[in-house]
Amino acid sequence: MSFVMNTYSRFDLEFVKGDGSYLFDKDGNRYLDFASGIAVTNLGHANKEIAEVICNQAKTLLHTSNLYKISSQEELAEKLSKRGFGGKVFFCNSGAEANEAAIKLAKIYGNKKYDGVRYKIVTMEGSFHGRTYATLSATGQEKVKKGFEPPMDFFVHVPYNDYDSLYNVVKDGDVIAIMLEVIQGEGGLKKADIAYLKNVRELCNRLDILLIFDEVQTGIGRTGKLFAYQHYDVIPDVITLAKGLGNGVPIGAMMAKEQFAEYLSPGTHASTFGGNYLACAVANKVLDLIDDELLQSVQEKGLYLKSKLKEIFSGKGEVRGEGLMLGVALNDVNNMDFINELHKEFMLAVPAGDNVVRLYPPLTVTKEEIDEGITKLEKVINKLWG
C-alpha cells in the first residue's frame, strides 16, 4: 500500500539514475528521455556543472528567508531583467506560484489605480496556468475545474487567436489584464499568431491593460530563444517562469515592468522559500549555460527534429511547436496508446490536449540522440498504423 495521496495517474515506471538525455530504471534499462520532466531538465540529467553548484551551495548555506538580503537572488534578478525586458523580479517555488503572483499584481493594480472598477482577467480557451485555486480558475479547460466549482468569477475565457472575441470582452471597460501562453503546452502546442499578439499588445497599450505571458513551459531556452515572446518582437508587461529555470530544483519567477512592479510593496506578497540560496545558485548557473551558442543550437536541432517528424508522421499527424518544444497531434491513434508503446521501445514522451504527443528532449540533446529517437518513433508508427 502506498501512503502517497493518489493525485496522479502514474506510468508504471520508476527511475533510479539519469545521465544527459537518458534515464535508467532499477533493472538497468536505459530510456531516451524526450519528456525532460515536462520541460524541466533542459540541461540534461545529472548535469555535472549544476551538480557541483548544488553540492557547494549545500555545504555553505541553504536558507535564511527573505527577511535578509540574498546576493545570489539579486544577481539572478539582474540576469533575467537584462536578458528580458528590464523588469523587476519576484521569486517563488513553481509555475503556479509565479502565475498567482502575476494575478495578484493585476488585481492590486486594478484596485489601487481604478478603485476596483477594473477587476476581470481574460485568459484563453485551452490554456493551462496551474492547480492552485486561482490558477485553475484562470485555466481555460473545464476538466481542471471539475470538483472545485465554483471557480473564481473574475476570469473570462475567450478563444485563442481570436482578436474579435477578445475585444468584445475588453470593450466593456472592466478588464485589468490579459493572460496567455505564447505556445499552449498542455493545450496541445498551439502557437499564437504574430498578428494576433501584435494586436493584443496594441490593445493593452491603448486601454492600460496588463499583458501577462505565461512562459512557465516555453521559457528558459525551450523554443530556441531564452523567452518565447522574443520570436514575436512583442514585449509583455509581465512574464512568469519556472520549470527549466532550476533544471529540477524548484524555483519560479514573476517579472514585471517597473511601473507595475511597484504596486507589490512590502506586505502585499511573499514566499518563505522563494529565491533561496540553493535555488538561485542553480538558476544562475542555468542562465550562464544557456548562452547564445546553445540557443542557436536549439533552433538548429529543433528544425532538424521537426523535419524528421514531418517525414515519419506524414498523413498520420500534424507536427507542431517551436525549437525543441515539439509535438504531434495524432490521427486515428490515441496519444496515450502511442506513449505506452513508446515506453516499450525505451523512450519517454508527454501527452497533451488535442491528442498530442509532446517531444521535449533536453536542449543539450545530440543529433545522434535525435536520430535514435526517430528510429524508436518509427517502430511505434509501424506497429500502430501498420
Automatic annotation (TrEMBL):
Additional facts recorded: May also have succinyldiaminopimelate aminotransferase activity, thus carrying out the corresponding step in lysine biosynthesis.
EC number(s) recorded for this UniProt protein: 2.6.1.11
Listed NCBIfam families: argD, PRK01278.1
CC annotations in GO: cytoplasm
GO molecular function (one): identical protein binding
Catalytic activity: N(2)-acetyl-L-ornithine + 2-oxoglutarate = N-acetyl-L-glutamate 5-semialdehyde + L-glutamate
TM region positions: none
Protein name: Acetylornithine aminotransferase
PANTHER family per the UniProt record, alphabetical: ACETYLORNITHINE AMINOTRANSFERASE, MITOCHONDRIAL (PTHR11986:SF79), AMINOTRANSFERASE CLASS III (PTHR11986)
Domain of life of the native organism: Bacteria
Lineage of producing organism: Bacteria, Pseudomonadati, Deferribacterota, Deferribacteres, Deferribacterales
